[in-house]
Amino acid sequence: MIQPPAASLPFTTKRPVPWVVAGLAFFFLFFESASTLLQDWWNDPDAQHGLLLGPVAVYLAWKRGLGKSVAPQPIMGIVLLTGSVLLRYASALAAELFTLRVSLMGALFSLVVFQWGWGQARRWWLSFSLLILSIPLPQVILSSLAFPLQLRASRLGAFLLELRDVPVGLEGNIINLPGQVLFVTEACSGLRSLTALLSLGLLVAALWLRSPWARAILLVLVIPIAIVVNGIRVFLTGYLVYFVDPALGEGFLHLTEGWALFLLAFALTGLVAALLYYLEGLKRSEPADTGSPGKEGSEP
Fold first, then answer.
1. Rounded to an integer, what distance in angstroms lies between the CA atom of residue 95 and that of residue 51?
2. How far apart (Å, rounded) are the C-alpha atoms in residues 128 and 288?
3. Residue 117 to residue 110: CA distance in whole angstroms
4. CA-to-CA dists, residue 35 to 40, 57, 196, angstroms
5. CA 242: distance to chain centroid?
6. What is the end-to-end Cα distance of the chain in Å, rounded?
7. Are 170 and 154 within 8 A, CB to CB?
């Protein structure tokens, strides 16, 4: 079995006492933050993408390992860690889970800066970004985002139904069909799939693409992809309810339809990423060949 080189290992056992003390302090200070986050990953459908993002973030950090030159910055690390601890206590007093979990990620970032410096924190930017995206947003923000998405999905679904000569009456997020009423609820707003698709889009952008412009374009296009696919889901639901069976608008078949269309959205994201990867190749091949070997793209 091939072992990773010693320089890539994220810790050393030559001085275990500081690590043990820091680990115990971290456990007692941030146990509530970590445990409630894990519970939401397991129980909350809007946060279950964290079950994928968390392990992937840890794996990517291990895979990248330490940089060739690490420079500990203990003073800056202590300053950042102090801010994270203060945020943790303020969040606990206010019973605000989002900032409580952000303080956990801030503490992890601070420890990396303390032990290995800013350079290593930048080297693990993708892992930290995925962990941040795995934190469920506060309910007040979810509600403010969900309703506009409900209206967009309702309008797009109603428009597609009209193209298929289905009599439609639209009132906000309520679609009136002959003998049936479709109510586009918050759960059908597409916010859940948008959050998961943004996380997967970031992962695809970091692993496949090398140019900042290509990564930015992919992440921007993920949003309309998710919105359009969710509108198609509303259309399919109305179409099946009107032409086939009203029971198809709920239950297991409706849930299966949502999963299938999410896979479609992810496939479209992959297609856009492949196109951007091709355009990156064209851009890299534009300069004339000088006979010197080109540099490979930077790793995520």
1. 24
2. 38
3. 9
4. 9, 17, 21
5. 35
6. 25
7. yes
Residue with structure tokens 């999963």?
259
Task: Round to whole Å and give the CA distance between 265 and 260.
Answer: 9
Helices 212-243 and 191-208: crossing angle in degrees, nearest 10, is 150
Alpha helices in the chain (DSSP H): 16-43, 50-64, 74-94, 97-116, 118-123, 125-133, 139-163, 191-208, 212-243, 251-284
User: Which residue is it, tokens 């009136």?
Assistant: 176
Query: pLDDT tens digits, residue range 52-82?
Result: 889 999 999 999 888 888 888 889 989 999 9
Report the DSSP pairing between strands 180-183 and 169-171. Answer: unpaired
Q: Please report which helix (H) or strand (E) contains residue 169, including its range.
A: strand 169-171
Residue among 58, 60, 40 at smallest CA distance from 50: 40
Tell me the per-residue pLDDT of 106-127, one tens digit each, with 9 for 90 and over: 999 999 999 899 999 999 999 9
Q: What's the length of the chain?
A: 300
Report the amino acid identity of residue 169: G
Task: Name the residue type at position 172.
Answer: G
Q: What is the pLDDT of residue 60?
A: 92
Structure tokens at 254: 């409706």
If we measure between CA atoms, which residue out of 46, 45, 23 comes closest to residue 34?
Answer: 23
